[in-house]
Write the structure tokens for this entry.
Amino acid sequence: MPFRSIALKIIMLSYRYLLLLPLLASCVRPPGYQPPALTAPTAWKTAADTLTKAAPTAPAPPPTVGQAPAPGPWWALFNDPVLAGLEQQATAQNFSLQAAVARVEEARANVRVAASYRAPLVTVDPQVYRTRLSGLRPVPFPVASGGSGVVQSQFYIPVNASYEVDAFGRIRAGVRAADADAQVAEATRRTVLLALTADAATYYFGLRGLDAQLAVLDTARQDRRHSLALTRERYRVGVDNEIAVHRAETELANVDAQAIETRRQRLVLEASLAQVVGQPASGFALPPQPGPPTAPAVPATLPATLLARRPDLQRAERRLAAASARTDVAHLTRLPTVHLNGFLGPQSAQLGDLARVSDSYTYYLGGGVSIPVFNGGRNRANEQVARAEATALTADYRQAALVAFQEAETAQADVRQYQAQVGARQRALRAARQASALTKERYRAGLTTYFEVVDADRQTLDAATLLAQTQSNLLTATVGLVRALGGGWE
């Protein structure tokens, strides 16, 4: 009797505890996740050098990957069909992008795995066995078996079911963490896509800049050959000396050497572009094209809210969201878990009797509560680990925002300054060409030496080369601004 009374008390306490679970669940529910607020600069520093004062507005927290639009074909800003073809090859054939896509599918599958724990587990476990019981076994009542053993057969087809009641939301928090991890993978894919397309454009415009320099060097080579022929003729008739001839030969050789170095640089960039578009470098070639393309016009005012589209910033925020959800999981692991389980199925000593369900079926239905009592502080330590990770990722997110502002500021400065440099380089080239033409006229008239011709030609070549380099730098800086703004400014 005392044992029965104690058992009844335990059962009654268990039922009371089960009735209190909803109330406890509402009390221990963790607070909802809110991304940290970011502080934007009051104005872009580079705007002080322009006619329009650009004042970036304070950005809202970056939208989640599901809310943010995927980066579009921003390279259409340059209106270059060759670049568009290269970008299509890169997005279709690059192996790094293919790996990122596969990781997105992996993360989405993990979301389905995490969500599956919210559903019951049902299995069918057919069993058949044959046993022999000892004839000398202890029995509660004498059995007239003559001391011989008993052989038994059993056929059993149970349907087992188990279910964890997500009373405190631990499983739901795990699903939120997996979903945030999937969004991290998607943001990583977009980061790879943006970096890939930006690298392709950077290499392409670098090649176009080198093509422009080679065109300048080809013109200079022809001019140097003409000067060498003129100097030799003047030396032959006794108008000029041998030093002028050797100086002309030196200038021609220097131009040839500079052209060789430029072609070497072009081969390096061409190989880099081949790697980006997913082709072997030995089988890829981009024919030279004359003249650098025109850089698109950049708006004078760029709001800081554009930075919320940056996929790397979205990735940092989603990593923080996943860590916050894992912190909730670690905290809720320290609370009791409620399990329901049971089975139902026919059981018989004869295989043919299994069909007599009304007589052969057996079932069990029950449940229980698992209350963590002691595990050496493991659950508490796991929660501390999760909170420390969330704190670190909060700092990483804020640092990523600072990097985004810095890159946007630097990219705008590069574009503005290179635009100004192009105008200055063009003026320098016009002046150098005029000076070179006047110097050569004076040389033909015998009013100056060849040394002044060499100096004027060098200045013209330097001015033309620097203009081609600056135009290429402006294009690559524009690509850098597109990358810094997360895929354009439209």
In short: The longest strand covers residues 337-348. The two ends are 82 Å apart (CA to CA).
